[in-house]
Fold this protein.
Amino acid sequence: MNQEIAASGTELAHSVPHFSVLLSSTARGARLARLLAEAQLRRWGLPTEPANHLVAELAANAATHGRVPGRNFRLTLFVVGGTLRIEVTDTRGERLPEVRCPEESAESGRGLLLVEALADRWGVREERFPRKTVWAEIGTGSTASRPVTFR
């Protein structure tokens, strides 16, 4: 398994709890992203839903649509105030996600609709080619909640 865990469960100099892991761009890597995110959220004492669904969709998209053989994707979680931010970075910067409305009989194509429904906010950040980061934010239910702007 090709993975690198950075600052697992620790805090940045700015006291921001964060977690970051590099995973293979495979179905197995996407499943592992969900399991690791769930474990980390439990360590932080945060609710695992709907974050689990968001991680599952974003990681599955990275492994399916953002896959480049031999390259990985990165899952990053961090909490600022009362906001959990989930980021998934892959190496297909030329393939930006778009929300589609698939046919009723279609077996796929609903992932971003689910992200849109579950997240308070979500979007895409284009990075230095060839990367892009798809992110989603949800409230943690913390009483220390304050508006946060991420860039």
Q: What stands out?
A: Residues 23 and 32 are 8 Å apart (CA to CA).
